[in-house]
Structure formats: structure tokens, C-alpha cells
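Need a sequence for this fold. Nothing fancy.
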């Protein structure tokens, strides 16, 4: 069973559902496998836990 993992920001339930559907549909079409074959895992990372150039992402987006 193919596994799709994505790391990103914290999302609300609706955005997660949309992302899961879009990733599954794209992979299903591309690989020619049924949607039920795919597992999608979203790993959410708070901006305080991400650093770019030595600065927390939360600070860069103030």
C-alpha cells in the first residue's frame, strides 16, 4: 500500500480533509491505483519548532 507523508503547518480539519483528498486523487490518477490503496499522513509542525537561517519561523512571520 503506497504511503504519502507530508510535513507542514498546523491546519484546520477542513484543510486537512481537502489536502488528503487532493493528494490521494493525484497519486491514484498518476499511478493508476484505486484511491483505497493510499494512506496519507500529515505531520504538523508548529512554527516555533521550525528554524530558517537560525531564526524561528514564528519570528519570521511576525
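Here you go.
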Amino acid at each position: 500500500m503506497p504511503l504519502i507523508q507530508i510535513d507542514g503547518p498546523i491546519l484546520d480539519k477542513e484543510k486537512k480533509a481537502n489536502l488528503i483528498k487532493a493528494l490521494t486523487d493525484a497519486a491514484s490518477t498518476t499511478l493508476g491505483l484505486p484511491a483505497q490503496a493510499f494512506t496519507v499522513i500529515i505531520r504538523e509542525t508548529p512554527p516555533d519548532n521550525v528554524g530558517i537561517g537560525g531564526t524561528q519561523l514564528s519570528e519570521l512571520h511576525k
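For context: The two ends are 41 Å apart (CA to CA).
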